[in-house]
C-alpha cells in the first residue's frame, strides 16, 4: 500500500461517489447495529 498519510480511491470520482451512495444506503442498518451494541453517537454528520 502507498503512503499511509494519503488515501486515494483508484476509481477516482466515480469510485468515491459509489462509496458515498453505499454509505447512505447502509446508514440505517449501521446506526441500528451501533444502537444495539450500545455505542454512542459522535454527533458527526454522515456523508
Description:
This protein has one helix spanning 12-37. By secondary structure, it is an all-alpha fold.
Largest sheet, strands/sense/barrel: none
Anisotropy-based shape: elongated
Question: Helix count, per DSSP?
Answer: 1
- Rg value: 14 Å
First CA to last CA: what distance?
Answer: 25 Å
Helix-strand category: mainly alpha
Task: Write the H/E string, N to C.
Answer: H
The share of residues in extended strands comes to under 5%
The low-confidence parts are: none
How many beta-strand runs? 0
**Helical amount among residues, as a percent range?**
55-70%
- Compute the average pLDDT: 81
Give the structure's gist in a few sentences.
By secondary structure, the chain is mainly alpha-helical. It contains one helix and no strands. The two termini are 25 Å apart.
Which SSEs are present, and which pair or pack?
Elements lengths: L11 H26 L10
Note the main attributes of this structure.
55% helix, mainly alpha, 1 helix, 0% strand, 47 residues
Amino acid at each position: 500500500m502507498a503512503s499511509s498519510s494519503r488515501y486515494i480511491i483508484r476509481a477516482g470520482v466515480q469510485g468515491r461517489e459509489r462509496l458515498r451512495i453505499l454509505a447512505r444506503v447502509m446508514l440505517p442498518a449501521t446506526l441500528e447495529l451501533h444502537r444495539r451494541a450500545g455505542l454512542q453517537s459522535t454527533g458527526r454528520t454522515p456523508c
